[in-house]
Amino acid sequence: MINPSSALEILISRFIKFALVGLSGVVIDYGVTILCKEKFKIHKYISNALGFSFAASSNYILNRVWTFASHDPQIVSEYGRFILVSLFGLLINSGVLWVFHGKLKMDFYFSKLIAIAFTTIWNFFANVTFTFHAA
User: What is the mean pLDDT of residues 33-52?
Assistant: First the structure.
């Protein structure tokens, strides 16, 4: 049995790794969102979903290898669980974006940053318990 303080240290270490992976995801998310919205003139919420989707796939690979060191041979199933968590995260992300940008009239990109923060918390705990069974 794992010592409770060791379990907390492992959880904190994983969260730090998850957050670092998430930073790379933010770069991908913003890059794709800006490219789609500004260059290709795709609707801002569709651009947001595309940015989020590209970032989610990149984050899966990095989290599987580094954060959780998963050796699950059922990679398609694990990826499916990760994407399912990410889709729920996308709903949270879009809802927070709608509240802060759509209702509170805050800057779109600042609102997106707030949405990413909310979504990160959901994604971490859902992935620990559901995707990678690392709790």
Answer: 94
